[in-house]
Design brief:
Aspartate Aminotransferase, domain 2; alpha/beta; 15 helices; seven-stranded mixed beta sheet; about 375 residues; four-stranded antiparallel beta sheet; globular; Aspartate Aminotransferase, domain 1; 2 domains; binds pyridoxal-5'-phosphate; 13 strands
Length: about 375
């Protein structure tokens, strides 16, 4: 069987898509997996058994129905959503990013975000045929306020994406700069709070104050990355329009039930998040003590660190059974940077040993 696309398919499929690279998932079998910001903790055995029994009761022969309404209400309560707002569900927040971009697919519209940032904003814009404007942060990965405001004045973006905390840099932005961006933005400003369980601040008050601000969260980094539940909050009239683009049954009954179960046990997830935050401080201090290594402050469940030779340390750690992410090639500001997800205490100890050994090897 040929591995190239038949010629007539080449003619009907989009040339830009054929020229793209797909989203690459690093193989991780047998490795300590610290590359994609997953929560490392499984549920305790008794909760896993209870969840199994719950999922066994779900009517798989039916399309998703009222349980989705219950999940929307439970998430609104969990998040503390303000009055006058509504919440829509996505199959992960990746789907919501696509739908928001689709909703703004008006010829000439521009999408804007700081860089380095989350790749899906740019990818969704390009797939929708919208121009993407990336505004570089400063060398410490803080927003360049004047550059952001100048770009907003020049390009009049329909959507401004602000991941808060940002990925892959893990930091929160300066609040005064965010507020100036929200004041200046002529279109939507979407605060993407995927890492909210690990951060000291959030944007709920901004959602309450501004009719053009949307707040997006996900259950992925919370502990349900495999389940695929993202949610978007905004003023009711705005969510009503965006929700028209959602495929009607986008949330599987199994996803929905697992998410409801998780929210009934949110204290367990809060306990896990507290361990991860404490471990983050331990890992940060250990990295900072290594010669030539500069970790950047984190408000998420990952740490970005600049090292003398990212490729060599990445390879040296992998050879020692630890998988992290080398983000050096994603943006010039990320030169020689590695991104490390915080794992369990044991995994972090293994990771730090592998890191130190790989560093020693490459600077020997
Ligand atoms: C991981 C991540 C997401 C995607 O989350 P899913 O809900 O798993 O699709 C969204 N935004 C940012 C900034 C992320 O890092």
């Amino acid at each position: 069987m040929s591995t190239t696309l038949p010629e007539r398919m080449q003619r009907v499929l989009r040339a830009d898509v054929q020229g793209m690279h797909g989203y690459a998932v690093q193989p991780s079998a047998g490795l300590v997996k610290l590359d994609t910001m997953e929560n490392p903790f499984p549920l305790p055995p008794e909760l896993r058994a209870a969840l199994g029994a719950r999922l066994g009761q779900v009517a798989l022969n039916r399309y998703p129905a009222e349980r989705g309404e219950l999940l929307r209400a439970a998430l609104a309560r969990h998040a503390g959503m303000p009055e006058g707002c509504d919440l829509m569900l996505g199959n992960g927040s990746d789907e919501l990013i696509s739908l928001i971009t689709l909703a703004a697919d008006v010829p000439g519209n521009v999408v804007l975000a700081p860089l380095p940032g989350f790749v899906m904003y740019e990818m969704s814009a390009k797939l929708q045929g919208l121009r993407f404007v990336g505004v570089p942060t400063d060398a410490d990965f803080q927003l360049d306020g004047p550059a952001m405001l100048a770009a907003i004045r020049e390009h009049r973006p329909a959507i401004v994406w602000l991941a808060y905390p940002n990925n892959p840099t893990a930091n929160l932005w300066d609040d005064a700069v965010i507020d100036a961006i929200i004041e200046a933005a002529p279109g939507l400003v979407v605060m993407d709070e995927a890492y909210q369980p690990f951060a000291a601040r959030d944007s709920m008050a901004r959602l309450a104050r501004h009719e053009h601000v949307l707040l997006m969260r996900t259950m992925s980094k919370f502990g349900l990355a495999g389940v695929r539940i993202g949610y978007l909050m905004g003023r009711k009239p705005l969510i009503r329009e965006l929700d028209k683009l959602r495929p009607p049954f986008n949330i599987s009954v199994l996803n929905c039930e697992a998410a409801l179960f998780a929210l009934e046990h949110e204290d367990e997830y809060a306990r896990q998040a507290a361990v991860i935050r404490a471990e983050r401080e331990r890992v940060f201090a250990a990295l900072q003590a290594l010669p030539g290594v500069r970790p950047f402050p984190s408000e998420a469940n990952m740490i970005l660190a600049r090292v003398p030779d990212a490729a060599a340390i990445f390879a040296g750690m992998k050879a020692r059974g630890v998988l992290i992410k080398n983000v050096s090639a994603l943006h010039p500001l990320l030169a020689q940077c590695l991104r490390i997800t915080i794992g369990t205490p044991d995994e972090n100890t293994q990771m730090l040993a592998a890191f130190a050994a790989a560093l020693k090897e490459c600077t020997a």
